[in-house]
Design goal:
Blueprint: E1 4-8, H1 20-28, E2 31-34, H2 37-47, E3 54-57, H3 63-75, E4 79-83, H4 96-104, E5 108-112, H5 117-125, E6 132-137, H6 142-151, E7 158-163, H7 168-179, E8 184-189, E9 197-202, H8 203-210, E10 218-222, H9 235-247, H10 252-263, H11 267-283
Parallel strand pairs: 1-4, 1-5, 2-3, 2-4, 6-7
Antiparallel strand pairs: 7-10, 8-9, 8-10
Helix pairs in contact: 3-4, 6-7, 7-8, 9-10, 9-11, 10-11
Length: about 290
């Protein structure tokens, strides 16, 4: 029988947040793959547990090379525990390659749920939490960073990012440029640690604060884009948009509803514009040509 891959969440700050099952899994695993074996040693000492299995390193630099070795152990029946320095493996941490390889081999993958900087920051931000997306780390180069931000400039879900402290001021300034200086955000620093801090405010204010220098591990939460407001379209433009949709094969009723939603106006207003365009076409030079 094949073994089991266990992804174990580890504390993002306070060691008391370690999930109760973590010590049990550390003691029972045949192989413990750790992002940093020195930090693993400090973790096991704090938890008062001595791993019985083999301990190997598994970090960004050796992830590709070590994955086949761990898959071989799993296919041989081993229980492999994967831990990263903080939080959940594979969430901006090593682990994705191993999970994908295990799934491909039909090896069981399970998890020991634990603390997450993404969810903790989101909950503390004071921003909408019903819909959100995690964007990880932005590119280091300024041009690439701006390009990535522009891709989500109109995203209406709350955005969550990780960032290095020495790049935080540049990142917040870029966000203010792309998203708007007054877009609300929260910078969550050193979550669950002694010097935990959550700064909330417009991006322009947070960028000015960060310019003075910030330390610690950083998670940035940014408010999503506002819903588009009503567009100032005259009746001819509304009718023209309906015509384009109809020519593409959409039924008139659905086309009218879609244009009304896009423009932020009542469906009746769009319907009246279509009727007016048709009447104008019958009686004289066409403003609503193509709407028959």
């Amino acid at each position: 029988m094949t073994g089991t891959l266990v992804l174990a969440g580890t504390p993002i700050g306070d060691i008391a947040d370690a999930p109760p099952r973590l010590a049990t899994e550390l003691a029972a695993a045949d192989v413990v793959a750790a992002e940093d074996t020195r930090r693993l040693r400090r973790l096991t000492q704090a938890l008062g547990v001595q791993p019985a299995g083999r301990i190997v390193s598994y970090f960004e630099g050796n992830e590709s090379a070590r994955t086949p070795e761990l898959v071989e152990a799993l296919t041989g029946g081993a229980r492999v525990l994967l831990v990263t320095d903080a939080g959940m493996p594979s969430v901006s941490d090593p682990g994705y390659r191993l999970v994908a390889a295990a799934v491909e081999q039909e090896i069981k993958v399970t998890a020991v749920p634990g603390p997450s900087a993404v969810l903790t920051a989101l909950a503390l931000s004071g921003l909408p939490v019903d819909r959100f997306c995690f964007e990880g780390f932005l590119p280091r180069k300024a041009g690439e960073r701006l390009g990535r931000l522009r891709e989500v400039a109109d995203e209406r879900r709350t955005l969550v990012y990780f960032e290095a402290p020495h790049r935080l001021d540049d990142t917040l300034a870029a966000m203010a440029e792309v998203f708007g200086a007054d877009r609300r955000a929260a910078v969550c620093r050193e979550l669950t640690k002694t010097y935990e801090e959550v700064r909330r405010g417009p991006l322009k204010d947070l960028a000015a604060w960060a310019a003075e220098g910030v330390r610690g591990e950083i998670t940035v939460v940014v408010e999503g884009a506002a819903a588009p407001g009503p567009q100032d379209l005259d009746p001819a433009e509304l009718a023209g948009r309906v015509a384009v949709r109809e020519e593409a094969g959409e039924r008139r009723k659905e086309a009218i509803a879609a244009v009304a939603a896009e423009a932020g106006v009542p469906k009746r207003e769009v319907f009246d514009a279509v009727v007016a365009a048709k009447n104008a076409q019958r009686t004289g030079p066409s403003e609503g040509k193509g709407l028959i």
